[in-house]
Amino acid sequence: MKKRIRLLVGMFAAAFLLGVVLVSAQQPEPPPAPGPQSQGQPPRPPMDPLGDSMFPPDMIMQHARELDLTQEQKTFMRSEMQKTTTRFIELQWQLQDAMEALHETMKANSVNEQQALAQLDKVLDAEREIKRLHIGMGIRIKNQLTAEQQTKLQSMRHSMKGPGPGGPGGPGGPGPGGPGQRPPDGPSYPAN
């Protein structure tokens, strides 16, 4: 049972991070600042607009004792993650089917534009539903946390980032805390 919960939490965490990355990828990137400072430096990764507002479930579970989560909070979060994971898997199948159908439509020498665009709408609808699913679950989980727990999570997140916006090594540098990254030791889950 513990293995199954860990697998579900891991799958959900990966899916949640994918959703956040997809949402942030749609945000326009500001133009680079001209001048000698920007020359020779790698480009900074795009800012995650929800990164400071949402908390990945694996981070919450990893720090459950430090956050002093109640049993009710833990039960609620497990339930939300299980429901979301189940729905996510269904949506992934729908998205895969829609992508395959779009691919088939696009392979023709002469593509029926209306048919292709209708199929594209199905792909975009599935992607939108996946994003909505993850953001909705993130909101419900955040709403279960007290203001004090949220403050602790924010401080944990900032302490994991290290110097500079990109973590150790300065701007854009590799390190934990950036979008889609986790602490170096990986998530650990409390034994319950």
CA-based shape: elongated
User: Biggest sheet, open or closed, and with what strands and sense?
Assistant: none
Helix content: 55-70%
How confident overall, as mean pLDDT? 73
What does this structure look like?
The structure is a single chain. The protein is elongated. Helix content is 61%, strand content 0%. The protein is an all-alpha fold and 192 residues long. The protein contains six helices and no strands. The C terminus is likely disordered.
Layout of SSEs?
Layout: H1 2-25, H2 57-62, H3 64-67, H4 71-107, H5 113-144, H6 147-161
Helix pairs in contact: 1-4, 1-5, 4-5
Compact summary:
With 192 residues, this protein is mainly alpha-helical.
Name some characteristics of this structure:
single chain; 192 residues; mainly alpha; 6 helices; 0% strand; elongated; disordered C terminus
